[in-house]
Amino acid sequence: MSLFLTSIRLASRALARNTLRTILTMLGMIIGVGAVVTMAALGNGAQRSVETDVRSAGTNLIQVRAGNFTRGGDDSNIPSGLGAATTLIVQDADAIRTRVSGLKRVSEMVRLRGWVAAGDKRFYAQIAGTGSDLPLIYAWPLSSGRFYEGREVASRTRVALLGSAVQERLFDPPAGVGRTITIRDQPFTVVGLPRTTDEDHSETVFVPYTALQDLLGISYLHGITIEAEQSGDATRVAADVTALLRGRHSAHIEAANASVQRLRQGGILGNQMPQAGALAAGPPDDFTVKTQAAEALTKGLYTSVAAFVLANMPKLDEVNMQEMASTLQRAGTTMTALLAGIAAISLIVGGIGIMNIMLVAVTERTREIGIRRAVGARARDVRLQFLVEAVTLAMVGGAIGLFVGVVSSGVMTWMLEWPTAVSASSIALAFGIAAAVGVFFGFYPAQRASRLTPIDALRHE
Questions:
Q1: 76 burial via Cβ count (<10 Å: 0-12, 13-18, 19+)
Q2: What are the residue boundaries of the structural domains of the chain, listed by start?
Q3: pTM here?
Q4: CA atoms within 13 A on the CB side of 236
Q5: Residues 261-285: pLDDT tens digits?
Q6: Nearest CA among 149, 143, 178, 179 for reference residue 163
């Protein structure tokens, strides 16, 4: 250990003799490591951005809606449902949280279409009352402000988040954190401005569902949004939620079905009531449960066509998950190959610079090597000294390059709004590569110095 520390002191002293040459030698490593760190940060940021966009697309979401009316369901022996219902309640959402496995988040939902005003400007928007988890479910970034919190939902606080289209219509310039909007003549304070690419969300005002319940004078829910932990598990979660709600709503479903039967017997409903074939599958529910993937695929289709499509794609969400995983893996592989190519070129150039300057150092210090060998230094002592110098050059250059890479990543994020993410693994990799380059390119000059004989070295002019 003492020999190693002595070698470090000697290496530092030797490198400090010619500061400019040392800095120029390290420049290759600084540029190489800085490029590696910057590209790794860009790659990580891009991958996280893609994952966020995929997550925002909602392929792992399940939507529960109150009521269940299905157009044309009798043709496929599908119960037509009970129309609008007020039986979906907050306790149902709590039961889903506690009794269904594989869930990540659950958010209650109450909806309203109405005028939203700010000063003399008005906008007819969708108003969504949600739980505090909805922004996390869709992974919305924030332009400014914050999301409302669980305590504000529980205390029925009148706060709001504005979609981008609503911001532009109500405020000029489009910003509004801390401002007040009115919904049905009731004031709501704007606390956050989420940034989303979804057109429906951009035209929506989000408020705590409890505050919107107070505004509408209701205690029930219009829907529940559920996020599954895994996209491929969405179908199973939807089935479990359906079974749970069917059990909780069984009394109402049976009572409503009995009422429909009596009306049909009296000839009031005509052909609107589900036919015998449809009822064979059981009484219709007073709710609907759909995965986001199934809903997107069957949107706008007649019920019989939608039923045929879903019957032939029973594992739709698993297919989507596999496709997304495959796409992300291909993108990651391409990015890795790109980073490897840039790193190899940059670091080879830096390593050649280190080897060149170390060969020059061996030539300049040949007489010094001869004196050290003459007074008892062994060949391995000389080899270690020059190897430590090469590694020190590489490590110091790598540390400076790491700093340059982190700073350049931050500058790119600030100036170009390009997502970057500097991970601990990329920092460790940068230091590891710098040390490896120092050892690899410094070994030959160190070996050459150790092979000098004391007599030849002392006679060197």
A1: middle
A2: 2-53+323-459, 61-314
A3: 0.58
A4: 11
A5: 665 565 555 444 444 444 444 567 7
A6: 143
